[in-house]
């Protein structure tokens, strides 16, 4: 019960990450790999139904993540402060928070018979470039040509 109360308080705190620079983000990515987080959560924190939940692109607040890592539920192993310090969790959190959201599936031409949906954002010229390399070469020489 104390863990639930602590998690509730942690979630009420503002989200503060001590890691803001690209160096910290890269260090967080390296820790995510070294500590084995990617094995269950995927290299981009995307998660899997079979192995572990998604952690990115919007990770839980840092204090809640620190509490959960110390006393997880389910099949996640416990990471004591000797194994993973709060500073290291902060770096991992910065890495996860830096990851952009995935594109919607309907915007990926390969998943839609070579054509993104009409409502999908993105350039249709990339589809024509893939299907017509000659047109792409002409466009590269003269980008203003019809």
TrEMBL record:
InterPro entries assigned: Cyt_c-like_dom, Cyt_c-like_dom_sf
Basic and acidic residues compositional bias, start-end: 136-146
Ranges where the Cytochrome c domain occurs: 23-100
Superkingdom in the source lineage: Bacteria
One Pfam family in the UniProt entry: Cytochrome_CBB3
The keyword Heme is annotated on this UniProt entry: yes
Ranges of compositional bias, category Low complexity: 117-131
Positions of region (Disordered): 106-146
Coiled-coil segments on the chain, per record: none
Keyword ATP-binding attributed: no
Sorted UniProt keywords: Heme, Iron, Metal-binding
Stated name of the protein: Cytochrome c domain-containing protein
Organism from which the protein derives: Paraburkholderia gardini
